[in-house]
Give the backbone structure.
Amino acid sequence: MAALARHPGSYWRDLFDSRVGRTVWPYGSGVWSKKEFVLPGIDPDHIVSLFEGNSNLFWAERLGRDHLAGMKDLWVKHCGISHTGSFKDLGMTVLVSQVNRLRRAPLSRPIAGVGCASTGDTSAALSAYCAAAGIPAIVFLPANRISLEQLIQPIANGATVLSLDTDFDGCMRLIREVTAELPIYLANSLNSLRLEGQKTAAIEILQQFDWEVPDWVIVPGGNLGNIYAFYKGFEMCRVLGLVDRLPRLVCAQAANANPLYRYYKSGWTQFQPQVAEPTFASAIQIGDPVSVDRAVVALKATNGIVAEATEEELMNAMSLADRTGMFACPHTGVALAALFKLREEGTIGANDRTVVVSTAHGLKFSQSKIDYHDQKIEDMACKYANPPVSVKADFGAVMDVLKKRLKGKL
Ligand SMILES: N[C@@H](CCOP(=O)(O)O)C(=O)O
């Protein structure tokens, strides 16, 4: 325990995170902040920082100050700067490592492969780690419902990719049936090995804040394993005496796929699975989440909240954040939209330390950004669209455009 308290980072990195040696926090508490990082001759107030070096937690200074009524302590934990571009890598390294171990053990029925149903990120992580280990991966994907960037990941990694004419929930039902029949190890997050790995992000947040507990942590929610993993990570640190309380968790859902939100609004009286509608936050287009009961445990234990965001709200929140340099994914847009609402109604205060969990890299969802900036989305004003200007390759024409754009600033 004493050793853990002195070296918590290396302990957890060694145990749970194959990114050993990469996840380092070189600036004291590990948070890249103006207070701790001073370039000789530069006023700390002039330093502009995002996700440099190895830090994946950054102070969203401009977003908080300019767009969230002077919020001073707003942070983004970017879990998408990882090998396959989403937080799923954290859990998949643990699960595939265990399968790798089991496949070397003398089992009566050897494990033939690892399978999952996916909306795109889990399949990317599973296929990459299985490819690294030489284990067959089988992924069930809802046809035409995941991004091209996500689709190419398991294909390129050599997985068996089944593109099924159903939604994620249909894929999930099928993979459960298949894995009950065949010796294929199920890798969805109902498997607690995944959650053990995903806990890492919560532990990292606490360590990066030098074991000071943030007031709020906002997590997008679809299949709902991740909100529980965050709770488990925070709760473990509390039980170990590393911190003395838990942050309040917010689970943010797309209004088009909001079974947990509805359950929460019913006072947790009745859970009703639904057929999830299409959403730009396609990775959380899930109507019958496998970890719903665990999510309720997490939210009840942390005095948590469930919030929802419409398509317009999530795309605007993502695009506004992008204008502060973030390049968020639409799911992070859902979490940001929840933050805007909670801040506006005063639930989250100006001085509350708040962490928004960014679950995937924005580059995995470029088509949705293209549609938004092209203003091609039906019934959406696309308030922050920034379409490119087509202009003749001619000095006068270029000058005209720039003078118009920079009017009053030249
Ligand atoms: N968003 C997920 C859906 C599957 O969830 P999991 O928690 O069971 O992995 C994905 O990217 O596939």
